[in-house]
Structure formats: C-alpha cells, structure tokens
Amino acid sequence: MTNPPASSISWDELPLRPELKSEHPYGAPQLDVPVAINVNENPYPPSDQLITALTRALGQAATALNRYPDREATALRAGLAAYLGDGLTSEQVWAANGSNEIMIQLLTAFAGPGRSVMTFSPSYSMYPEYARDTNTKYRELPRRADFSIDWDQARQAIVADQPAILVLARPNNPTGNGLKLAEIETALALTTGLVLVDEAYQEFSGQPSAISLLAKHGRLVVTRTMSKAFAYAGVRLGYAAAAPVVIDALRVVRLPYHLSTLTQVAGVIALEHTESLLAQVDHLSGLRDQTIGRLRALGYEAVDSQANFFLLGRFADRHQVWQRLLDQGVLVRETGPAGYLRVSVGTDDDMERFIAALLSAAPVVARKAHP
Ligand SMILES: *Cc1c(COP(=O)(O)O)cnc(C)c1O
After folding, report:
1. Taking burial as the number of CB atoms within 10 A of a residue's CB, which of 75, 84, 102, 356 is the most buried?
2. Where does the chain show beta strands of DSSP type E?
3. What number does CATH give the domain 64-276?
C-alpha cells in the first residue's frame, strides 16, 4: 500500500464517487471588474438606514454567539410568513442558506436513489447538480423554441416517469420567460410527486406568486430567495412555502443548526426594511425592458424577460464576444442556449457601459446603416 502525501495525492487515489471524477465545481468566474452583470445580483447596495439597523442587531446577537442558533428559526420564519401573506403561518415556511440549500434538502427528503427529478431545459444549471449529489435520476424535457413548455408533449413523459419532484423555474433562468399559474395546476394534475416552483426572480415578474395556489395544492412547494430582488445575496438566505408536512420533512434532513444566528438576525432585519430593499425592483424591471428595446433597435437579438436578466445573441462565437466585453471591463455570463450570452440588469450606468462595450465587441452585421 503506497501512502501518497497530501501535497500530491490525486482523485484517482481517493475513494471518490466515480460519477464525480470528471466534474468541476459550479461557478461563474468571480472577477473584480467595473461592470459585473453576470450573476443576476441586484446592483444597489443596502441603504445606510439598513446598515445601521443591521449593525446594531448583529452586535446584540454577538453577545450570545457562544450558544447555538434557534434550530427552528422561529422569529425569521414568522417574519417570512407575514411578508409572504396569503394567510401563511410559520409552519408553512422554511428558511436555509440560499434557496439552493432548500432545494437540496427537498431532494434529500423526497428524491434519492431509485427516484427521479424532471425539469424543462434550458433551465438552472444547479438542478442536475442537486440530482447528482443526492443520487437521483435527472431528466430534462425540451422547451419550445420560444422556451415555453409544450404540456401536451410533457404529459406523456410526466405520467410515465412520475418524477418524485418536477421542477419549474418561474421566471426561468437563463431564458427569463414566465409560467402561468394554470400551467402549474396542469403540472400538479399530472403527477403524484412534488411540484417545485422556483420563484427566485418572482418580484421582477409582475405576476402573482404560485404561493396563491398553496391553499388548494398540498404537493406544491414554492422557493424564493433574498439573493436577487432583495439585494441581499451576500447573506445567503432562501426560503420556501409549502404544506406543514413538507416543511416537517425538511426539518428531518437539515443539518443541525443549519442557519446561523447572524443569518437569522440579518433576515429579520431585512424583513423590517423590505420597502428600501425592494425599492429598485420596479426600476430594474423597467430598465430591463428599455435595454432589450434599445438592443433590438441596434440590430441585436434580445429575448423578452420577466426576471432581472435577459438573453442576448445570437453570436457565432459567443465566447469571443464574452471575452471582448470582459476586456472592456464588462462581465456577462456565458450560459444558456448556443449563441446567447446572459446579461443581468445593473444600474443605468452599467447598462450604458455595457451597450457601448457591446457595440465594439460585436458589431452587428445587420446594422449596415452606414453605406
Ligand atoms: C439565483 C437563483 C436561485 C437562488 O439561489 P440562492 O441560493 O437563493 O442564492 C435559485 N434558483 C434560480 C433559478 C436562480 O437563478
């Protein structure tokens, strides 16, 4: 038996699960650039008022950091239930370190070996990773060319597979298109499994939340996050609304004391400042539509979106366009269907700098205004 040292041991010499051997960690490049419009963050930092309240509350909480946090996140869940409205109680609400953690808890509790998760591609690149990590079979059904879902076609596959969890991102990432409440009810009628509606970008959509369907549908789970509209990505706080028994199942699989005291306090303070945190949502949605309109007028293809990002294309060599934008200090995301780049809506100034950079990075052939 050889004993390779830590400095040189490789994956091949470790009992790593074979399916992980060719995998890479998730992640868009984190680069320090003037215009970071790549991971759908809200570009506006917290208000001074919020920072003051947060600093005070965290200081107070720090005096008890020798103790474990409240395992049930009681105050935070009560605050989230009140924020979500629709008559929700704390027992119907759950919170974790980002909605990503909630989703992996859902797969841990409801999926796993011998079970499957199904979604419609293209969609969020983390879904297959949750499936991989929980040993769950993962199946993607194709979307139509306009990224909508063909329910007649989906019906057969859903009925045949009976996935443990059917995942619907609404609005979808990376395409930005929405989903009608009636379509969610169609999905619920087709499966005996859970229907997970990922509403990470709900606040930008101007549409009613799927939470309004919870009263009628016990197998529906709606996840939300403070990472996007709430401008609180650094806190890592996601939440879910579902039937109390679904939440109980998540409580079974969560890690002990999974949500730190500091995170819980930061969440409670955020809920006391929803007005200022969400203040820019309407502006960002308007700027999104305006930017899409400008890009189209310039001759680019930009896809309508209900989120705080949109697809831009189509480029013969999208990596080259991505690199040329980056060379000018503009970081977008190289993701989505072939030929497209995904652009987050930043500040007004970000959008000006992005469009200026794009015009030199990818001059539009069709834009032959000058003879
Ligand atoms: C950003 C995003 C999330 C949110 O992730 P957090 O873990 O809450 O930061 C969830 N789903 C989709 C589709 C997203 O794009």
Report:
1. 102
2. 35-36, 93-96, 116-121, 137-142, 165-169, 194-198, 220-225, 238-241, 301-302, 309-313, 330-331, 341-344
3. 3.40.640.10
